[in-house]
Structures are given as structure tokens and as C-alpha cells.
């Protein structure tokens, strides 16, 4: 109800731009990899190695996912090796740090918890205490754009 009222009054974009004034500075895949590794080292040291982290322009955020975590298992010698990749929708190159952080935390949590269950969301909030607020605000921004709003932090 509140979201619809803000949309109708044309105030949702203003609210979000006041709350999050600037876009983050992570623009390249290398910078995104380093950004993600920093979170992993701080919160998930013993989780599997992340082999690749990239912005992916094939992920359409409104209809599909915001990011993807893939894990491929391969036999190497006598053991099974997992290869983890994280893909973040290119849309998030031009958003506030909080939105990017929420996506990275979400995808990192999949290293430990495969399902979106209570343990998964507890891990997300362990890594980012404001996870749920950032997820809500990200979805509000997507709703704002879906209803014809102009990008707030650069070209999306």
C-alpha cells in the first residue's frame, strides 16, 4: 500500500535517492571479484574457493534473478573438485553499494546454504546485518524502474 502511494505521488525515486546518495565504485569484473573476495575472507574463510565473479548482461533483473551462484563438480584424479562462480546482473554496476552488497552477500551465502531457508537468511544477516532492508530497497528500486522511473544512479 505504501509503495503504491509513493509511486502514485511520484515520490519513490526521491525517497530512494535521498536514502542512497551515490553509486558504488565497483565497475570492472576484477573489482567485483576483489569486492566479493573481501566479504568471503571476512565471513566465510572455510567455504569453497570462488573461481569467477563477473557482471553478466544476460541476467534480466525484473523477470529473472538478480545474481546467480553456480557450482560445477569435476573429478580431478581421485577426488571431486567444485568450481564456484558468481554472476551479478550488469544492472548493479550503477547502483548504491548497499544494493551490490546485498547481491554479493546473497550469492556468497549459497556457498554454505543451497536453499533459501532460515539458515540461509541467518547467514545473510550475519554477513550484512541490514540485508533485509537492502533487499527491500533494491526491490523498491526495481518496482520504481518497472513503472517508468528514470535510473537514479547513472544509466541502467
How would you describe this protein?
- The protein is an alpha+beta fold and 156 residues long.
- It contains 6 helices and 3 strands; from the N terminus they run αααβββααα.
- It has a 3-stranded mixed β-sheet.
- Strand 2 and strand 3 (79-89) form a beta hairpin.
- Helix 4 (97-109) packs across helix 5 (118-127) and helix 4 (97-109) crosses helix 6.
- The longest helix is centred in the last third of the chain and has 16 residues, at 131-146.
- The two termini are 27 Å apart.
Short description:
This protein has six helices and three strands, in the order αααβββααα. The protein has helices at 2-9, 12-19, 29-43, 97-109, 118-127, 131-146; strands at residues 50-56, 67-76, 79-89. α4 crosses α6.
Blueprint of the fold:
Elements: H1 2-9, H2 12-19, H3 29-43, E1 50-56, E2 67-76, E3 79-89, H4 97-109, H5 118-127, H6 131-146
Parallel strand pairs: 1-3
Antiparallel strand pairs: 2-3
Helix pairs in contact: 4-5, 4-6
Mean pLDDT: 88
The SSE order reads HHHEEEHHH
**How much of the residues is beta strand, in percent?**
15-25%
Count of beta strands:
3
Tell me the structural class.
alpha+beta
The rough form would be described as: elongated
| Unreliable sequence segments | none
Helix content: 40-55%
> Going across the major beta sheet, what is the strand order?
1-3-2
Amino acid at each position: 500500500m505504501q509503495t503504491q502511494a509513493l509511486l502514485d505521488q511520484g515520490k519513490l525515486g526521491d525517497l530512494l535517492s535521498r536514502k542512497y546518495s551515490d553509486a558504488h565504485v565497483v565497475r570492472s569484473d576484477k573489482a567485483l571479484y576483489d569486492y566479493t573476495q573481501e566479504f568471503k575472507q571476512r565471513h566465510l574463510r572455510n567455504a569453497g574457493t570462488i573461481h569467477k565473479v563477473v557482471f553478466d548482461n544476460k541476467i534480466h533483473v525484473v523477470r529473472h534473478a538478480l545474481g546467480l551462484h553456480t557450482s560445477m563438480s569435476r573429478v580431478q584424479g581421485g577426488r571431486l573438485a567444485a568450481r564456484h562462480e558468481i554472476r551479478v546482473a550488469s544492472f548493479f554496476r550503477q547502483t548504491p553499494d548497499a544494493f551490490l552488497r546485498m547481491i554479493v552477500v546473497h550469492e556468497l551465502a549459497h556457498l554454505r546454504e543451497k536453499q533459501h531457508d532460515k539458515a540461509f537468511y541467518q547467514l545473510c544477516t550475519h554477513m550484512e546485518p541490514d540485508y533485509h532492508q537492502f533487499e527491500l530497497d533494491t526491490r523498491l528500486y526495481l518496482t520504481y524502474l518497472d513503472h517508468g522511473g528514470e535510473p537514479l544512479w547513472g544509466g541502467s
